[in-house]
Amino acid sequence: MSKLFIVMGKSASGKDTIYKRILECNLGLKTVVTYTTRPIREGEQEGREYFFRTKEQLDLLEQSGKVIESSCYYTIDGPWYYFTADDGQINLETGDYLMITTVERYQKMRSYYGEEHVFPIYIEVEDGLRLERALQREREQKQPNYEELCRRFLADCKDFSEENLKAAMIEKRYQNIQMDICLKEIIDDIQRERSML
């Protein structure tokens, strides 16, 4: 059986960039695109960052037993759902996979597929630096939403608390201070894990 490598981290920790850089290393990892009901952001593309669906479409998938896990975040713009569907993207008989998600959702994926098949890649950045990065990213939006930025930043303190990381059995942290050093450490660990199969 293969491995599902899951990248996690607080907002503006660099997890999206690291995810893309891992894929650029041509390790033969297949990608998993998850779903969300939130509005598409500038620069995003359907089927690349997420599959964008309505709450009604999520309800239909849940009724048909196709939702592996889901989480709801109560934003200033209303509830946004993020979820993974059993849509044929993941088949651990045919290869290794890479995806991005949260600690809570990582735990659900581990329960669904078995902890021996799911490997956590937790990206960590000092909060002050992370806030600077988040602010810069928000400024680049056509309509910056600083209130939502602040909500996400504060919510991360709870979602990625030491208690939650311990409950998820996430011990190793990849410090994203210098991207290339962080990336090399992650790639080395992915290759080591794959060689143990």
Stretches where pLDDT falls below 50 for ≥5 residues? none
Number of helices: 7
Distance between the termini: 7 Å
In percent, how much strand structure appears in the residues? 15-25%
Anisotropy-based shape: globular
Task: Tell me, rounded to a whole number, the average pLDDT.
Answer: 93
Helical residues, percent: 40-55%
> C-alpha Rg, in Å?
17 Å
> Biggest sheet, open or closed, and with what strands and sense?
5 strands, parallel
**Which strand order does the major sheet show?**
2-7-1-8-9
List the secondary-structure elements in sequence, H or E: EHEEEHEEEHEHHHEH
Strand runs, count: 9
The class by helix and strand makeup works out as alpha/beta
How would you concisely characterize the structure shown here?
With 197 residues, the chain is α/β, with parallel strands linked by helices. It contains 7 helices and 9 strands.
Descriptive account of the structure:
It is a single chain. A hairpin with a 2-residue loop joins strand 5 (67-75) and strand 6. The longest helix is centred in the last third of the chain and has 17 residues, at 179-195. The protein has helices at 15-24, 55-63, 103-113, 127-139, 146-159, 162-167, 179-195; strands at 4-9, 30-31, 35-36, 51-52, 67-75, 78-85, 97-100, 118-124, 174-175. The radius of gyration is 17 Å and the shape is globular. The chain is built from 7 helices and 9 strands; from the N terminus they run βαβββαβββαβαααβα. The mean pLDDT is 93. With 197 residues, the chain is an alpha/beta fold. The strands form 2 sheets. The chain has a 5-stranded parallel sheet with strand order 2-7-1-8-9. It has a 4-stranded mixed sheet with strand order 4-3-6-5.
